Amino acid sequence: MSITHPGRRDVALKSSPDVAAARRETCRLVRTDEDLDLHHGVRRAVFVHEQGLFRGSDRDPLDESADVVHVLGLVDGVAAGAVRLYPCREEDPRDGLWKGDRLAVLPGRRAGHLGAALVRFAVSTAGALGGRRMRALVQAPNEVFFHRLGWSSTGGPVDHLGVPHVRMEIALGP
Q1: Rounded to whole angstroms, how far apart are CA atoms 8 and 82?
Q2: What is the DSSP letter of 70?
Q3: Is the pLDDT at 1 greater than 50, yes or no?
């Protein structure tokens, strides 16, 4: 499946006025091999080195799938975040169910709004690609963050990679 995002443009969000005015947070689809390396570098820094959830790499066969969308988040033009999304494989593709995962923001960049920008970008991208709903398995401490972005919890905590996670879902707009 070839993925063409109708708005192949960066989404720029200005930080709140109390943060340095020059700070620009942007999200964009991974377009080049260099972008993909940066995307995976952010994920490796967070999931392998910081959290120790994986050994060596968090890459899996999904990363090679043609229908997976990799997103890169930048702060002032420097890679600082990543997320991936794809049509849900557990259900009929005609149901329009998408899944988001591997949301990562580098530790020094979590005080801004990049995490929220990445989630919103993933949601709007899945919607633009025909999705009707999106699911995610979110680390339990991030549940409130996702609630603030309009997501709903759909079940109690589950163990994933030895860490409590919560199933969450959001309806995707037209």
Answers
A1: 16
A2: E
A3: no
Which residue spans within the chain are E strands per DSSP?
11-14, 24-29, 69-75, 78-87, 97-105, 133-139, 152-153, 158-160, 163-171
Domains and CATH numbers, the chain: 23-171 (3.40.630.30)
The pTM is what? Answer: 0.84
The helix (H) or strand (E) run that includes residue 119 is helix 114-128
Specify whether the CB–CB gap between 112 and 19 falls below 8 A.
yes
- Both tokens assigned to 123: 């949601």
In the structure, how many helices (H) and strands (E) does the chain have? 3, 9
Handedness of CA 146, 151, 152, 153 (dihedral sign): negative
Q: Judge contact between 10 and 27, C-beta under 8 A.
A: yes
